[in-house]
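Q: Please design a sequence for this.
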């Protein structure tokens, strides 16, 4: 299992916006089905432009 990434205070890699509340971006969750198993991947979504990043599973 990987370590949890802290995006507090970070800028969006797409538009450069900083967090809305004390530098925090929204948490984004993606669900996948792979070989009959469900996989949940957690990343970040920019509150300004909606760009998502930080996911481990590459689509």
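A: Design:
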């Amino acid at each position: 299992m990987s370590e949890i990434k802290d995006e507090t205070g970070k800028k969006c890699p797409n538009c450069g916006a900083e967090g809305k509340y004390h530098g925090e971006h929204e948490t984004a969750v993606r669900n996948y089905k792979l070989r009959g198993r469900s996989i949940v991947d957690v990343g970040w979504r920019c509150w300004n432009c909606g760009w998502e990043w930080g996911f481990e599973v590459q689509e």
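Q: Thanks. Anything notable?
A: The CA atoms of residues 29 and 42 lie 5 Å apart. Residues 1-48 form one domain.
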